[in-house]
Amino acid sequence: MSRFEGKVAVVTGGAMGIGAACVERLIAEDAVVYLADVDDAAGAKTAAETGAVFVHCDVSRLADWESLAECVVREHGRLDVLVSNAYALRFGAPHELPEDDWDVVQAVTLKATYLGLKVFAEALTAAGGSVVAVSSVHAHASYPGFAAYAAAKGGLAALVRQLAVEYAPAVRVNAVVPGPILTRQFSSLSSESIADEAGKTLAGRLGRPEEVAAVIAFLASDEAAYVTGAELAVDGGWQVKHR
């Protein structure tokens, strides 16, 4: 497939995991991809392996977004796809969680999508573009220790619906809702713990980053031209099993 030939994409948090899989998938389908991340070493490595353009970008900072937008528009004059994937994760109930930790989770996980539209709305509108935000099952299910993350992902779900209304019909805005995906978050877990997490899904296994990337590519493509304001679960049936 070559659904993104002649199109330009930005993927935040693109150095590893789901973000890196998105970078690889979009480039495989002939997009020009800007990989935005704060991890310079991992970002440069993924860019070198895939052919993406790495840009150091702290997605919680408007100034970094403005620099990224200036670079993309100067070099290509357009933006067709924005994948808002970056997130921060800090654990603790509110009485245990430092205020700074709460703030960084909200800024990286939720505020970043607002900032992305703030700087790229004009370019996305002109291109008839698409935004895909990466949410989480934690937007819809509650577990101890996830207060900040659940609040940010729940807010992101509401923001996606609102953005779809704000920018229709020119720009489509959707979200994917991954369940347990085999990324670095699971790298420190024992095989027993991973098996336990896999057992919480109907699929009986953890998902792979490339499986999430495939759904993101679909939502970003013209094949999903009649889909906006939607949340699409990529969780192996996790939510169904937990309702």
CA-based shape: globular
How many angstroms does the end-to-end distance come to?
36 Å
The total tally of domains equals 1
CATH architecture grouping: 3-Layer(aba) Sandwich
What's the CATH class label?
Answer: Alpha Beta
Order of strands across the biggest sheet? 3-2-1-4-5-6-7
**Helix segment tally:** 8
Low-pLDDT segments: none
CATH topology: Rossmann fold
User: Main sheet, how many strands, which sense, barrel?
Assistant: 7 strands, parallel
Portion in helices: 40-55%
Task: Name its key features.
alpha/beta; 7 strands; seven-stranded parallel β-sheet; Rossmann fold; globular; 243 residues; 8 helices
Describe the 3D structure.
There is one protein chain. By secondary structure, the protein is of the alpha/beta class. The chain has a single domain, classed as Rossmann fold (3-Layer(aba) Sandwich), CATH 3.40.50. Helix content is 47%, strand content 14%. It is built from 8 helices and 7 strands. It has a 7-stranded parallel β-sheet, sandwiched between helices. Helix 1 links the parallel strand 1 and strand 2. It is globular, with a radius of gyration of 17 Å. The mean pLDDT is 96.
